[in-house]
Specification:
248 residues, alpha+beta, three-stranded antiparallel β-sheet, 5 helices, globular, disordered C terminus
Length: 248
């Protein structure tokens, strides 16, 4: 498992976040979160920082911006891609399970997210291990009993039951990321779109993408830019012009 190491600035930002969230707990600003906190996490800035680092590691792996992770928000998920709302679960590098804390069992069904991702990290270095859809987690979960290393009543799934990260909905594989020197003008490739999902590589520097409406386009990797699609017709002007260039 190749580790992603967060830079010093992001690490410090996570540390500051950890202290800030503990202060918010102490001030009574987050009563709902406090009600389901466990193992003293509400008063442990290091635990809070490590959890935020796990979110950042996944965001880096996905090519997402980090700033939204530090915004105060009432959103029930941790990250969002064009296709999925993600709840990040963190464990150590030697951890084995994706865990749903038992104090949150009662809110599992109501909490809004599409899938869970297990990130294994040792402070600011780690990597995503795998993912599972919300419904599959509930169906496949085990419940820790007496004598288990997890607290009795904890829901968990072994990491071996998780889907591989390269099968994550909307994932763009590394082969699609480089901007080839032959592109004119070279553009930074944005791996997440409002309505587009990566499908596969068609040829050298050429990728296939699918819109929410089901329509597929073939375009040069690195030429497509992030743009809000209208309705498809739905493909944005930038994407339509890219498709026509390829067809010419």
């Amino acid at each position: 498992m190749k580790l992603i190491e967060l830079d010093r600035a992001t690490t410090e930002r996570c540390v500051q976040f950890g202290h800030a969230i503990v202060q918010r707990y102490a001030a009574g600003e987050t009563p709902r979160s406090l009600a389901v906190s466990s193992h003293g996490a509400e008063s442990n800035p290091r635990v809070q920082a490590r959890a935020k680092m796990a979110e950042c590691i996944l965001a880096v792996w996905l090519g997402l911006a980090l700033d939204p992770l530090f915004e105060q928000s009432l959103r029930p998920w941790d990250l969002r891609t064009a296709r999925s709302r993600i709840d990040v679960k963190q464990t150590g590098l030697n951890g084995q399970y994706l865990i749903w804390p038992k104090r949150k069992n009662d809110i599992f069904a109501a909490k809004e997210f599409d899938l869970l991702v297990l990130v294994k990290n040792d402070w600011n270095a780690g990597a995503p291990r795998g993912w599972i859809e919300k419904e599959d987690f509930f169906r496949l979960k085990s419940v820790a009993g007496e004598g288990h290393k997890l607290d009795p009543g904890t829901w968990y799934v072994d990491q071996e039951l998780l889907e591989a990260m390269d099968r994550l909905p909307g994932y763009v594989p590394p082969v699609a990321l480089p901007v080839l020197a032959s592109f004119a003008p070279p553009m930074a490739f944005a791996p997440r779109f409002e309505r587009l999902e990566w499908v596969d590589v068609v040829g050298p520097g050429i990728g296939r993408f699918r819109c929410d409406c089901g329509q597929e386009i073939v375009a040069e990797i690195g030429v497509i830019t992030r743009s809000r699609a209208k309705n498809c017709g739905c493909l944005s002007p930038a994407l339509v012009s890219t498709r026509r260039r390829r067809a010419a």
